[in-house]
Amino acid sequence: MMIKALFYQIKYAISNLFLNRKKATNGRLKASFGTVKDDAFNFTMIETYFRHKDHSGVYQTLSDKTCNDLDFDEMFMFLDRTHSKIGQQYLYNHLRTIESDEKQTQLDEEIIAELSKNEALRISIQKKLEKLNHKDAFYIRTLFQEKHIHPPKWFFVVKILSFLSLLSLVLSFFEPIFFGVLVGIFCVNLLIHYWNKKNLVQYVNSVPQLLRLNAVAANLFTNTSLKKLHPNLAKSIQLINGVKSRMSFFQLEATLQGEFAIFAWFLFEITKTVFLLEPLLLFGVLQKLNTKRTEIEAVFSFVGHVDMLVSIASLRAGLDTYCIPTITKDNEIHADQIRHPLIYDCVPNNIQIGEKSLLLTGSNMSGKTSFIRAIGLNIITGLTLNTCFAKSMSFPLLRIFSAIRISDDLMNDKSYYFEEVTTIKEMIAQSKKNTMNLFLLDELFKGTNTVERISAGKAVLSALAKNHNKVLVSTHDIELTDMLEETYDLYHFSEIVAENTVAFDYKLKEGKLKNRNAIRILEINQYPKEIIDEAMQISKKLDDSYLGTIL
Q1: Which residues does 422 contact at the CB level (< 8 Å), separation at least 6?
Q2: What is the DSSP letter of 288?
Q3: Quick check: 217 and 233 in contact, CB under 8 A?
Q4: The pairing of beta strand 326-328 with beta strand 333-338
Q5: What is the mean pLDDT of residues 239-268?
Q6: Which one, of 328, 320, 342, 338, lies nearest residue 378 by Cα?
Q7: Among residues 153, 299, 137, 327, which one has the least CA distance to residue 233?
Q8: What is the pLDDT, as a whole number, of residue 469?
Q9: Conformation bin of residue 321: beta by default, left when phi > 0, alpha when psi is -120 to 50
């Protein structure tokens, strides 16, 4: 009776433990929905799926240069609300790959709406996805993106030795001398067994995670809405399950290593060495998996896409203002209350870019470059996540190129100016293609002298604005505003210089900048009076000279 009572007490305690853990997990997932991740980001691993994926046929793949200019990694850390390493890799690739698929976008929106409304469903999906949040899940993509190792030419010897080991073991029960033969074969097998360890270690992370991925995909696929993302996925799941029994060997290997089960590990190692199980199973599994690359990628993409949709739902839930953009057929960009997503308490601005491009003037720190980046980032998230950080936004399908953050390339012996020349040359070539492009530029040719900077700047900006391209460029050269007013709409940012302070309102204003305050700011910062006086005199002479040339 006492034993029975103790049994029920233990059962009740275990039941409570699991119930409390379930409640804690549900509470954590509910509280984190709509919030920014507080995780470390291993971009080396996150990027690998993107780096190895074939992007031929897509509308545009964002270049490393453009991503660097737009602070893409920081943007990704803000956008990423995924719950698996698969989701992270998939989201990163999705953000850098611009495609146009209205049917897919419509289906995504239906699922996002359901995830946003149905908390129980969302939490259930998040729990499944978290099973793939171990760092080893980063390696799953190697099973369909990288070449597998091949058995050596002498591999037939492994099969012979394995058979001889089994035969010697059986015969040793009848004739003890065969035990000595078995020991001799074991010594040879031991060398082959540990030779194979370097092969096994390449897959001990990825193969067990593939089993888990397939199980998660099968579970998610039971949902009617998610099934629409890949109606034929069941076949891929089934084909991978066909190798499940062989792959389970890797799972056992990983479990024994992880739990430090010394005794069990020792017996397992002896058994594997005697019969050379590791090389036989390893190359057998790899041969099977090599024929199922398409199926593995299909399952990977399905789970990654589901995780991405949960991430988008979470992102939107945490925003005060966002919109689903309108992708138009015309060549205009309209934005109402647009914000830079990475700037806290960002001042919103409105912009309408019609037939002309956009030329921005303003002093340093007034908001010019941040505004250009805001436009670029919002168009990228609009085209990839169907989400913009604005009250409303519309634009056509665009290819995005930039020249904002340019620096000397000392390793390749390139100066700042030469690096910029190369980047702009690529833009000019792109501008002549039969596609609509968006060029984002900051302080064109600032690495050279004033006369040639203005001359080359005017010629380049005129060329880039042709063929229905859109250009957003900032400059300190007021002269360019007069030269380009026929092809560019003029806007500016300005500051308010008080008695001893400089304040910025970060509001976009029409027209070119008329007030200059650089010398006044020097004065506020207590530069010597003689420097201020001389600078003012020179500035007046240069102004008079410039006015004389244009009148």
Answers
A1: 414
A2: H
A3: yes
A4: unpaired
A5: 68
A6: 338
A7: 299
A8: 95
A9: beta
